[in-house]
Prior knowledge:
By secondary structure, the protein is α/β, with parallel strands linked by helices. It has helices spanning 14-19, 57-69, 99-110, 143-160, 174-184, 205-211, 231-243, 257-266, 277-288, 294-308, 318-326; strands spanning 30-36, 43-45, 53-55, 74-79, 115-120, 133-134, 141-142, 164-167, 191-198, 247-251, 271-275, 312-315. The strands form two sheets. An eight-stranded parallel beta barrel has the order 1-4-5-8-9-10-11-12, surrounded by nine helices. Helix 4 packs across helix 5 (174-184). The structure holds ligand PBG.
Amino acid sequence: MNLIHRPRRLRSSSVIRSLVQENHLQASDLLAPLFVKEGKGVREPILSMPGHARLSIDELVKEARELFQLGVKTIALFPAIEESKKNSRASEAWNPENINFRAVQAIKTALPEMLVMGDVALDPYSSDGHDGIVDPVSGEILNDQTIEALIKQSIASAKAGFDILGPSDMMDGRVGAMRMALDEAGFQKTLIMSYTAKYASGFYGPFREALASAPKKGDKKTYQMDPANAREALREAALDEAEGADILMVKPGLAYLDVIYRLREASTLPIAAYNVSGEYAMVKAAAEKGWIDGDKVMMETLVAFKRAGADVILTYFAKEAAKLLAR
Length: 327
Ligand code: PBG
């Protein structure tokens, strides 16, 4: 054939392929979420997330050190709170002695350069299992009352040493309220990575098992977004940007690559993708059955986030991927 254009020329050897490779994944792009609970020497496996466990603080510090050495220098902490410490106000969320705050202090003492992100939302501490305050009569999730609680949680989190705060609650106006309160309290340097477009998703199942944090009643559809919507994500992004967010996040990741792409086009801020627990669990389960090559699918998934425009990837694959990248 007399073909002028033969795109395969650029795929003909591994050297030419790497020469023209458009997107590169690095350990420094990855942010590792970790689960923490009370105790000593505890690594309690999370059944739906093979390879992950609820860690006591001593084990958490070991895990963080290993990640840091592999080049994953940002982590996010998620505390499993004892049922007896949960109440309808979620007041454990700003108790300066809570497990989450003791955990960040231990990590910052052992690894001062590690960046640590703390979630801002009430669900791990709420006896109702909702991210916000529930009206006891109507069952409504109360926006403005929730913001007051989130402010207390934010200030206490910054005091405890968190470098990045991640409001994952989807209340209206929380980014601006947090930024103002943080600045007033002298925490100008504390970053806000907003869960900007967080969808009411079925992909959070394993995470809610890990923290026993599923809603006791109803669902999260009055605050998390409808999976059918993308324009709405641009509205949320514009608001978060105007309110002072430093980084915009899309969650879940894989089924929402179009949303990542749209936010990338619409904003100059860094964009983060949260490759959530259910996405991790699906890959692990299929790989365990021998139905897919787990490593291949993991790396393909992660580079897809970069191709879509994400700068930061929150992923339970962080350690495994960093190990593969180091080879
Ligand atoms: C809580 C929160 C959730 C996740 C992160 N923060 C769960 C939820 O909104 O129900 C999910 C993370 C994951 O599934 O990996 N506000």
